[in-house]
Amino acid sequence: MPYELKHVFASLPQMERGVAKVIGGDPKGNNFLYTNGKCVIIRNIDDHSQFVNCVRFSPDGSRFVTAGADGQIFVYDGANGERVGSLGGEKAHKGGIYAVSWSPDSSQLISASGDKTVKLWDVGAGTAVTTFNMGADVADQQLGCLWQKDHLLGISLSGYINYLDKNNPDRPIRTIKGHSKSIQCVTVHKNEGRSYIYSGSHDGHINYWDAETGDNDCFSGKGHSNQVSKMVTDETNELVTCSMDDTLRYTNISKKEYSASDLVKMDFQPKSVSVAAGGLSLAVCIGQVVLLKDKKKIFTLGNLDYEAEVGVIHSGGTTAAVGGRDGKIRLYAIQGNTLKDEGKTIDVKGPVTEMAYSNDGAYLAVIDESKVATVFTVADGYSVKNEFYGHHAKPVSLAWSPDNEHFATGGMDMMVYIWTVSDADQRMKLPDSHRLHHVSGLAWVDEHTLVTASHDATIKQWTVKY
Question: What gap in Å lies between CA 367 and CA 278, rounded to an integer?
Fold first, then answer.
């Protein structure tokens, strides 16, 4: 509401030139702004009936527009703020408008709306030239747009970036699909001679990326409904994922489509999944360790006297190692369709956070909350090969290089280390690899290319030179 001008907060001569300060208002609803030694009036505009989401000046400064949650776009004179028109008559969009972007010549603009459309406007005529229909799902709501030279872009609620085509408004020229939530896990798989990166995020979304070109897409159909916690690929070219929706999914990489039949419902929430030859899978769930074969549960260890965190199957398919919060790793023998506890355990420095067998099965690497990475030699009864120190906070991710001589770890300290198995003092450090969050997943494309994923919803590739 308007305010009467009661006093000036500072005498004008005392105020520094080059600064801008609101110094009062009058009963008409105008505010007074002191800037560059002058007092000017700022106009109060109340044409919108709901929140104003975006205000944009035209590139030539002659006009500006406001877009609101009421679905309206108003056009104003850039010099005095007088309203000179509106776009689309009573309403520009059926839903709220979240963004607008002007054409370089200031004659047109595009607007993005929750009604799942982007519209191209002739500002002078006040009419829509083209309507881009972006879909029918909730995730197709348009939250952002950009007119950059000859390119028109719309950003969907799903996080997809769409390159719009004026000549074919119902089919984008290109759609860049990525994650809009934190990435929890990542793996790499080679398919038809090319390496692909697979990543899973907090909202259950899975994306795949061409490691060479960066081109990406996602599987079609209905996938996980909650966080994807871990993922691996098996010998039959399937992506095996476990999720907080209490399921394991087996997704054919070649078909690139979720299958409702290749879904295993778990009794409790799975935290970790591992695979081996012969159709074997191992799932570590809250309070259970489950062995699966050919996508069916064949054996369950329940009533555990420890809290299991992560499990891995040796490539030979005869041993399952399960790490617990008690700082112990239990080695179970896989005999037929059972897991047999033969009383074999390995001690580490603290609660286990992650572990992995080397690709050749010679070593088992383990990281724990005591900030230590330990490598055990399998053939020598899991004797300690080396211990690795460097992280200043809990390490949470681990991956072996294809050369079986190096492995990488990522920690809550925002650091990534690449270790040499035979020499604990020989290490490489990637400081601040992801500046906003710690690394949540690691994978190797080849022995000189490391992939990192983070809660900042990005994936990076690093060239490693020893």
Answer: 28
Cβ atoms of 231 and 251 within 8 Å: the answer is no
CA-to-CA distance for 205 and 218, rounded, in angstroms?
A: 8
Tokens of 183: 């990435």
Calpha distance 99→462 (Å, rounded): 35
Q: Is 370 exposed, middle or buried (0-12, 13-18, 19+ CB in 10 A)?
A: middle
How many C-beta atoms surround the C-beta of residue 325 within 10 A? 15
Nearest-CA neighbor of 109 among 84, 130, 85?
130
Give residue-wise pLDDT tens across range 346-364: 999 999 999 999 999 999 9
Residue ranges and CATH numbers for the domains of the chain are 12-42 (no CATH), 52-176 (2.130.10.10), 183-463 (2.130.10.10)
Tell me the pLDDT tens digit for each residue of 138-161: 999 999 999 999 999 999 998 899
Structure tokens at 424: 């604990």
| pTM of structure | 0.80
Residues 6+ apart with CB under 8 A from 438: 396, 410, 411, 412, 413, 414, 454, 455
